[in-house]
Write a structure and sequence with these properties.
eight-stranded parallel barrel; four-stranded antiparallel beta sheet; 8 helices; alpha/beta; binds flavin mononucleotide; TIM Barrel; 18% strand
């Protein structure tokens, strides 16, 4: 009898049914996405980042297609964690797929506050969004090892839930930052978020985004994210990684696994095709059959050096 490949994977002690993670900000609150796509194909889906108080976000335009990717400058518009808990929190257990809550804030204490409220809902893990430009005085937590580890320590104090630290490909030195957040208590790192970018309309001469500079995502950033995954996985082989950036096919997932990721995020691809996760999993299963792979773990970090 033909045995089916084992698609489950692990992030440390945390088990995922499949290696696919629906990335934060690209599947709404997850609850609203459940009617659009089959969420069973994901090991986990990450709800939009939430802050302690409501954030109104930036004014339009906040999204733009450019090149083969997209720019966003949404400014983490969200209703605040308490309203989110009241509106969405009670729907999560009925979704049938693990939902991770994403915490964001201006200070380490704010991240801790958000995490303590998220922990009262049925989220199964917390992702710390260290890679949005909201550090006190500007900047980004994920570019500063000390600031990033203070955030992780504050969340760790607030809850025992599994915790991922979402880092930034804008960081010149990703390994020391990954090391600092692991030391502070992160169970895994997510590599990574969007790459800073900008674009301009040559007819109107206006910036594509109201905030001018925003986050560039989609196909073109895949090599940048793969570089981050490879650098961290080879320097810190015991730290689990969710590789994220530019994934749109089963082959992309394999590439991230080979580079050393244990799970792989799908983000911008949802905007062109909300059910892309189903196609990616079919393509992944084909690759497994073609290469006689029985278990996801056979591919993780299995790149062959020259
Ligand atoms: C419109 C949009 C909104 C996003 N919002 C968030 C967010 O709220 N929190 C977060 O951690 N990442 C957010 N991201 C980043 C994605 O989760 C992902 O890390 C990034 O887009 C790279 O992956 P991709 O190339 O597959 O999109 C957002 C991305 C997009 C395109």
């Amino acid at each position: 009898m033909k045995t089916l490949p084992r698609l489950g994977t692990r992030l440390g002690d945390y088990s995922l049914r499949t290696p696919l993670v629906a990335s934060c900000g690209t599947v709404g609150s997850v609850a609203d996405f459940a009617g659009v796509a089959d969420l069973q194909v994901y090991g986990a889906a990450v709800a939009k980042s939430v802050s302690p108080t409501p954030w109104s976000g930036r004014k339009p335009p906040r999204l733009a297609a450019t090149g083969d990717g997209m720019l966003n400058g949404i400014g983490i518009q969200n209703p605040g964690v308490r309203a989110w808990r009241d509106e969405i929190g009670s729907q999560l257990s009925a979704i049938g797929t693990d939902v991770w809550g994403s915490a964001v804030g201006h200070t380490a204490e704010e991240f801790g506050e958000v995490a303590s409220v998220l922990a009262t809902t049925s989220v199964t893990a917390i992702e710390a969004n260290l890679s949005c430009p909201n550090l006190e005085g500007g900047g980004m937590f994920a570019l500063d090892a000390g600031a990033a580890s203070r955030v992780i320590a504050a969340i760790r104090q607030a809850t025992d839930l599994p915790l991922g630290a979402k880092l930034s490909p804008n960081s010149e030195q990703i390994v020391p930052i990954a090391s600092a957040v692991a030391e502070a208590g992160a169970d895994w790192v997510v590599l990574g978020n969007t790459v800073w970018g900008a674009g301009f309309d040559i007819e109107t001469r206006r910036p594509l985004l109201s905030g001018v500079v925003g986050g560039y995502s989609g196909r073109p950033i895949k090599p940048i994210a793969l570089r981050c995954v490879w650098e961290v996985s080879t320097s810190m082989p015991d730290l689990p990684i969710v590789g994220t950036g530019g994934v749109a096919t089963g082959d992309d997932v394999v590439e991230f696994l080979l580079a050393g990721a244990s799970a792989v995020g799908v983000g911008s691809a949802h905007f062109a095709s909300p059910r892309i996760g189903e196609r990616i999993m079919r393509q992944l299963a084909k690759y497994f059959r073609r290469h006689r792979i029985d278990d996801v773990s056979e591919l993780i970090g299995a790149v062959r050096p020259w």
